[in-house]
Specification:
This protein is α+β, with helices and mostly antiparallel strands. The chain is built from 7 helices and 4 strands; from the N terminus they run βααβααβααβα. A 4-stranded antiparallel sheet has the order 2-3-1-4, with helices on both faces. The protein is globular, with a radius of gyration of 14 Å. About 35% of the residues are buried. The structure holds adenosine-3',5'-cyclic-monophosphate (CMP). Adenosine-3',5'-cyclic-monophosphate binds near residues 59 and 93.
């Protein structure tokens, strides 16, 4: 499998709980390399655009409100099969259904406040990464 990149958000609930390090540890333990990372506080406009695909869903307003409720940590992760691997590390969207050892099982609260976001496909990974990062912010080591 070729080296791939994916995009990650450590959401406001996990930042408030003080588990940024816990989330990043699980990412690194899985063999994913953090090649860019920063803390940001999303504006309403950014969150609405980032989640535009969910605009028609009943939880859209709540989602935007939550994602702008505090700072988040956005990162670019790199590794073999990074998109699928990170989805495995995150666990099921609903923390109640997430497997033992996953980030959402350890740190998620409910389906809305579920600690982390990860891209679901190569196209979304590229789009989401471009939304928050410029090429100069990506590092190799
Ligand atoms: P994420 O991977 O960030 O992408 C869309 C988000 O919508 C998802 O994680 C969930 O946190 C959120 N979401 C999905 N279903 C619901 C729901 N029923 N109620 C509130 N939020 C939801």
């Amino acid at each position: 499998m070729a080296i791939e990149r994916t995009f990650s958000i450590i959401k406001p609930d996990a930042v408030r709980k003080g588990v940024i390090g816990g989330c990043l540890a699980k990412i690194e333990e899985a063999g994913l390399k953090i090649v860019a990372t920063k803390m940001i506080h999303m504006s309403q406009r950014q969150a609405e655009a980032f989640y535009a695909v969910h605009k028609k869903r009943p939880f859209y307003g709540e989602l935007v409100e939550f994602m702008t409720s505090g700072p988040v940590v956005v990162s670019i992760l790199e590794g073999d099969n990074a998109i699928a691997k990170y989805r495995e590390v995150m666990g099921a969207t609903n923390p109640a259904e997430a497997k033992e050892g996953t980030i959402r099982k350890a740190y998620g609260t409910n389906i809305g406040e579920n600690a982390v976001h990860g891209s679901d496909a190569p196209e979304t990974a590229a789009d989401e990464t471009g939304f928050f990062f410029g090429t100069a912010e990506v590092h190799q080591y």
